[in-house]
Fold this sequence. Notes:
- The protein is of the alpha+beta class.
- It is 43% helix and 17% strand.
- The protein is built from 9 helices and 15 strands.
- Strand 2 and strand 3 form a beta hairpin.
Amino acid sequence: MSKSSAQYSPYPQHHPHEHGRAFQRRPAAAVTAAIPLPAADDAYTIVHHGKQVRLGPVVFWIVVGTVVLLGLWSAATATYFAFRDDVLTRLIARQAEMQYAYEDRIAELRAKVDRTTSRQLLDQEQFDQKLDQIMKRQTALESRATALGAMPDVTGSIPRSTQQRGDAGQATTQGTPKPSPISDTVIFVAPPDREARLESRAPAAMAPPTSQFAKNQGFDNVLVRLTTSLDQVERRQIAALSAVEEGMDSRMRRMRGVVSDLGLNLANLEAAVPRSAMGGPFVPVKLTANAGPFEKQLNRINVTRAEMDRLNRTLALVPYRKPVIGEVEFTSGFGVRSDPFLGRPAMHTGLDFRAATGDPVRVTAYGKVVSAAWSGGYGRMVEVDHGNGLSTRYGHLSEISVKVGEIVKIGQVVGLVGSTGRSTGPHLHYETRIDGEAVDPQRFLRAGVRLSAG
């Protein structure tokens, strides 16, 4: 770079080839006239590889000032960072804070994965527990249905309303866990290792598309529907059991009422019941500590049924049944009447049943034949002792079918209708006696109608 000047040297310049030649002074005027002076110029010239760039003084000093300022700024900044420890400390703290935030984020993601894993395991455990409870309930309901079906007062059995395997299989698609209610268990896939580093986890594979059944229903809905179905079955069983218990209680009340209305002693009747051949060790009836309402109610029914069986055996000795089949028609009732032969008031000690000659006459209660022969005005007559002072007589028979000492059962034919003895035509004279005294047979017949109504 060079700077141009407006003044020229008064001395001539020597050419290299003129070295050694004598110097000749030229006149100044001649030089001045020969070489004109250029105008004043303060421009700076930058020469590089033969190329020249001329800069004005303002531009030149702007460039120089800028370079100087940049140098000073760099030096000041370097000095500032070199001698100010708090700036470095803040930078290091910022870096540490970013590192801690990253680690906290990793820990948060790990905790989220752990919670998700724990929730899945808990959901699976709860599902298994609910499924196990449903299976136990179904087993209990099936045993209850068997117990109800074995009872003579319950006809049929309660159908199983739970979904079967085949039905559940048709509702699911291949590759989807089958939410069959009782017999099948859904297998859950275990989540990744909880202790694995977040950075080393492989990307989660996309889950297979859920079937429409799982979308609309879901395992929880399946369990709810199964539980609801089992609840309905249990309610029907409880209702059936309650109906049986109510019916047994009603019949027990009627049976006791009949015995009371007839003026009989129940204890004496029970003592007169013939004992059949039976035995075995005594095992008291007791319920388990965890027995539910159904088991308790079933136990009450069994106790009531045993008592009712005992009353039935006792009432088998009470003559409350009809001695002839078909519609009952009386030709003469119990009590005072006009004697058919003498026309005078007389006591009629029985009931006269209208019947045709040869119609079968049946015994009205369990007992033993104590008389089977001709007996005065009764004609051919059969008398049966039912125990506890109760006895029945069947008169005017045309034929006797039993003999003295024979044990007769309810409904067994003891003879045929006739008109023997003091009789105006074929009919059956029927008497009931307590301790030898004749009582109105209609009391026992009405008791029979009352018992048969239930």
